[in-house]
Amino acid sequence: MLSAILTLALLAGVFGLLLGYAAVRFRVEGDPIVDQIDALLPQTQCGQCSYPGCRPYAEAIAAGEAEINRCPPGGEAGMIALADLLGRDPVPLEDEEAAAKPKSVAYIREPECIGCTLCIQACPVDAILGAAKQMHTVIEDECTGCELCIPPCPVECIDMIAIRDTPETWRWPYPDRKPWLQEAGDA
Amino acid sequence: MPDYPKPAWDFHGGLHIDGHKSESLATPLREAKIPASLTLPLQQHIGLAAEPVVQVGDEVLKGQLIARASDYVSANLHAPTSGRVTEIAERPIAHPSGLSAQCVVIQSDGQDRWTELPEPIADFREADPADLRERLRWAGIVGLGGAVFPTNVKTNTTGRTVDTLIINAAECEPYITCDDRLMRDHPGDVIDGALILQHIVSAARVLIGIEDNKPEAIAALQADIDTRGLDEVKLVVVPSKYPSGGEKQLIYLLTGIEVPSRGLPLEVGILCQNVATSAAIADAVLRGRPLISRIVTLTGKGIRQPGNLRVTIGTPIRDLVEEMGGYTGQAHRLIMGGPMMGFALGSDELPVVKGSNCFIAASREEIPDPLAASPCIRCGECVKVCPAQLLPQQLYWYARSRDFDKTQDHSLFDCIECGCCAYVCPANIPLVHYYRFAKTEIWAGERERGKADHARRRHEFHEARLKRLEEERQARLRKKKEALGKKSAAGGDPKKAAIEAAMKRVAAKKAAQGQEPSPEQARDQEKEA
User: With an 8 Å Cβ cutoff, are B101 and A167 in contact?
Assistant: First the structure.
């Protein structure tokens, strides 16, 4: 009886020490699930999810505070990827209209720009070049199309221009659905 | 034709299909007329588009560089004739998308005057391979078998040794005969190019793989090899089976070596080049000429006199058709490439590019409109014919359901899009279309992920910068406060000290005024009081 208690106590002590050591030695900084969620988000930093950027939204999802359907730029594919990662059920997108918008970049009508720098301050990825009282311009390759520069512009000289397909970025269309597919009610 | 030993190896699958080669081989090779206007896409190769080095209005000479390779994987572009640059703008190009791309448009002056060309390197065996590769880069040579990969990049063997150079003369796809024509008429160029390539990569032996349906070409090449007494160059005649001209398939046929999945032939000590590329290399090295023309097959029941033409790059397809007597009434579809791997063009005004080997004006019977697909019955015919030993029915299943991870698990990117599976499919499923769809979707996904990662890094930097600026501001404020605190440290309470200091200043002022107040000042002071 006593030996059993002693053995168990000893084992508990040893494992406790081991676990304690492992907790210190192999400590994980940050939450890996947040990184995984963040990796699936499109990084437009547009705030359409009502969080100030993709990472805060990822943190909210990880904490169970937010649904996975609030990212219009990620679209349905992004939502399904999140559902797969988190083992949740797919849900319809909150704002399907926004998700259906074509991918765009901001374009400043340069003759109209007054050089107020408000758009530069609003840009989450520093994609706008310019200085006070100097003309501003958008670096097309860096723009995520978040539209955050549009509301602050006092002269409304920023347009969103849809990105055109080039032969390099063009994608083969999904092969035509044939009658038998529709009959079968297949997607 | 002398007896050639049958190759010891045979690749999996493949098809025995009617070649339809004799139609376009009945007439000799002809030079096509240089058109009044040439359209030259800046991207006729794999990699980044070339950068124009001419401006609208410039006079250019034949062979003059008009666009420079913009990257390591890119290719130079030269003026195919003399004339004036009239436009640098977007024009429709021969591409399955039907989209437009940047092109240089040259109005020919009809004189076809050459520019000053670099010195020929006649004694190439004494030349430094790096110089020869630089010559290929200058000449804008790309793989003319269809892949249009820059040849100077492909021949960069840094860190690897090439044991065997394979010259791909199989030309396995039906209808296409441009390589056959080239070998019959210019076997010397092909062999010259092969020897130059052999010197560049210092290969021990050269194997020329050719299908047995080209006896004249085989005889012409063999005669050239024999007269030169080349022991290290060997002609290997392979049975006609589509797609024996696929790079990995031909390598296996000739050497029994399998190129690893998603790997390069270089990894197994092999370099493979097409015969037309080989001839273009001879032209660049031995004559100092850039790649500005190529042999193109025009065939199909829709063309009055099928045959082969040496064509200036940038010529509209319609001009070539007219050269061949125009269309017959049967022309139904225009296809660039072969019937198995080519794609339909929306217009015959598109220009010939470096990669155009064949145009088929097909009749409705030759290439019928696709029938409606019916459900896959999993008969497995596609598995039997797949030369890449994939499972086409599984790939189809996953591509159809957009399960792109699974398509990659089933080696989608080892698919060479030869079309054998779709050819034998009893359900008429456009299998290759599904694979192309899946491939371009995967590439688009990768591009998007790359962009997202880039945006994430920039956003993180943006946040870090804002934080740093805020910290700097706080630090400045703190410093100011500290400075203030130090001054008043002597007086104890900073507030009291400040008040005292102010009172002192006022007192000093008053004292100064009290010393010698002018009459006006005295009056003012009285008023204020």
Answer: yes
